[in-house]
Amino acid sequence: MIDQVTLRRRGAHGLIAHDRERAFDGYTLFAPMMGDGTVYLIDMQGEVAHTWRMPYPPGDYGRLLPGGGLFYCGKTASEGVRFPAWTLFKGGAVLEADWQGNVLWEVRHPDHHHDARLTASGNVLLLTLERVPPEVSQRVQGGIPALDGRDDMWSDRILEVTKDGNVVWEWHAYEHLDPETDRLTMNV
């Protein structure tokens, strides 16, 4: 039986609960967010099956690749703070490591955050951010004033890059929103 009271489970380490009837048989891949870049692959009993030691702390996501390698998003040192919360979700590096932890390739981008994906062609989709041009941001309705006194606005951008970092395609979120009808609101 799994204790349903979250407070009693807090602070516990290792495998806290395992309901064999409801769990999908397999492995779990994770890298502790406050960790040193060690990525763990654990089995259904919570035992470590494999580890990788990455050169960066985790920047949100990692995935196992079909050949046994690791696709990993890492958090690089800040290369300029975009806005106050930037350091919370900044990434900066995407890489592939083999089973032994050798880095096969790496792409760095100062505006990368949260996620990245490999494409079927072997390129990488990077979720990045960019400053919205003033002629667009000035037309946006709603929102709240910046706490730090700045009036710039940031938006998501997707970049498709080769494994050596060359941009082959890009998509800008602000180009697909209408400032007249797509208003910023604040839920209080």
What would a concise description of this structure say?
The protein is mostly beta strands and 188 residues long. The protein has helices at 6-9, 86-89, 134-137, and strands at residues 28-30, 38-42, 48-53, 58-64, 70-75, 92-97, 103-108, 112-118, 124-131, 154-161, 167-172. The two termini are 38 Å apart.
What are the key terms here?
single chain; 188 residues; mainly beta; four-stranded antiparallel sheet; 3 helices; globular
The biggest beta sheet is recorded as: 4 strands, antiparallel
Identify the quaternary structure here: single chain
Shape: globular
> Which radius of gyration do the C-alpha atoms yield?
20 Å
Alpha plus pi helix count: 3
Number of strands: 11
What is the strand arrangement across the widest sheet? 4-5-6-7
Q: Estimate percent helicity.
A: under 10%
Unreliable residue runs:
none
Calculate the terminal CA-CA distance, rounded to whole Å. 38 Å
| Nearest-integer average pLDDT | 86
Structural class: mainly beta
Beta-strand share of residues: 35-45%
Q: What features would you describe in this structure?
A:
The chain is mostly beta strands. Helix content is 6%, strand content 36%. It is built from 3 helices and 11 strands, in the order H-E-E-E-E-E-H-E-E-E-E-H-E-E. It has helices spanning 6-9, 86-89, 134-137; strands at residues 28-30, 38-42, 48-53, 58-64, 70-75, 92-97, 103-108, 112-118, 124-131, 154-161, 167-172. The strands form 3 sheets. A 4-stranded antiparallel beta sheet has the order 4-5-6-7, with no helix packed on it. Strands 8-9-10-11 form a 4-stranded antiparallel beta sheet, with no helix packed on it. A hairpin with a 5-residue loop joins strand 2 (38-42) and strand 3 (48-53). The longest helix has 4 residues, at 6-9. It starts with 5 loop residues before the first helix and ends in a 16-residue tail after the last strand.
